Amino acid sequence: MPFINIKTNKTIPAEQSLKAKLGQAITAIPGKSESWLMLAFEPETKMYFKGSDEGCAMVQISIYGSCSAAAKQDMTGRVTDILEDELGISPDRIYVSYTDVPDWGWNGSNF
Predict the structure, then answer these.
(1) For the segment 57-104, what is each residue's pLDDT rounded down to a tens digit?
(2) Within 10 Å of residue 57's Cβ, how many Cβ atoms?
(3) For every residue of the chain, which 3-state class applies, written as one string?
(4) Which of the listed residues 41, 44, 67, 75 has the most CB atoms within 10 Å of its CB?
(5) pLDDT value of residue 71
């Protein structure tokens, strides 16, 4: 049950391509796959980073349970590569945060 929220000041012209690439990237987290992945895109958000409105992004990844620092490092690399390829955002203008969630509800109950 991963959730990825991407907030950026850029336009996202090819959401399906971005969705597919993130669906592959989530496999960096052991036991996670696109079959349970939820995504949210917040394009064209007024954002500034380092005093500039040059392309930037904030990526928030929530994971049911937890995973290793190495898996998160791998995932960060994948996400920043994808955003650079798809949106032209330099990796040094992307923050990625992680939240390990011990309780996750779905379909009227908790896992």
Answers:
(1) 999 999 999 999 999 999 999 999 999 999 999 999 999 999 999 999
(2) 25
(3) CCEEEEEECCCCCCHHHHHHHHHHHHHHCCCCCHHHCEEEEECCCCCCECCECCCCEEEEEEEECCCCHHHHHHHHHHHHHHHHHHHCCCHHHEEEEEEEECCCEECCEEC
(4) 75
(5) 97
Predicted structure pTM score: 0.94
Residues in the chain: 111
- Look up residue 4 and give its two tokens: 């990825």
